[in-house]
Amino acid sequence: MHAEDDTELPKSKSQLKREMDALQALGTDIVKLSAKDLTKIPLPETLADAIHEARRLKSHGALRRQMQFIGRLMRDIDPEPIQKALDAIRLCGQQSTARFHAMEQWRDRLINEGQTALDEFIGQYPQADRQQLRQLMLSAAREVKQSKPPKSARSLFKLIRDIFESDDE
């Protein structure tokens, strides 16, 4: 064994370029966030100003140069807290999408399967008003058969959403 094995080798030019591209990609992801989500990211003032400027730009060339500038600014900071905050925002979005799909599935099941789906729903959400659910289910099923606008299906979805929200509290 050589004594040189204990020392770190300098990073290759390719490795440095990959790291800089990753930082620039992180900057691009931040620029694409909504204004609300952007406030959740811990950014130094200079980087925040550069990101707000990039959001304002319309010219492709100017935006590309600004993104390179953002990548350069990110070399001087620790990107880990920014990446963690971005991951948390994405996870929250995925959870709300999954929740929305679950509500849609319950609505469709209640309309199509009838009493068996209602019993299962009440088993999971005992605070739900069985009579109101049944009434909206029947009205929505009737609207489907008569090819009418889905007014009751929308009302049923709103009721399911309220039940889900009350269950979270």
Helix-strand blueprint:
Elements: H1 13-31, H2 35-38, H3 45-56, H4 60-74, H5 80-113, H6 115-124, H7 130-145, H8 151-168
| Structure summary, number of beta strands | 0
Radius of gyration, taken over Cα atoms and rounded to an integer in Å? 26 Å
Q: Give the CATH topology of the largest domain.
A: Diphtheria Toxin Repressor, domain 2
Residue-averaged pLDDT: 88
Q: How much β-strand is present in the residues?
A: under 5%
- Low-confidence runs of at least 5 consecutive residues: none
What is the CATH class of the largest domain? Mainly Alpha
Identify the CATH homologous superfamily of the largest domain. PSPTO4464-like domains
Give the fraction of residues assigned to helices. over 70%
First and last CA, distance: 62 Å
* Structural class assignment: mainly alpha
3D architecture notes:
The chain is mainly α and 169 residues long. It has 2 domains: 12-77, Diphtheria Toxin Repressor, domain 2 (Orthogonal Bundle), CATH 1.10.60.30; 95-168, Diphtheria Toxin Repressor, domain 2, CATH 1.10.60. Helices cover 76% and strands 0% of the residues. The protein has 8 helices and no strands. The protein has helices at 13-31, 35-38, 45-56, 60-74, 80-113, 115-124, 130-145, 151-168. The chain is elongated and about 70 Å long.
Summarize the structure.
By secondary structure, this protein is an all-alpha fold.
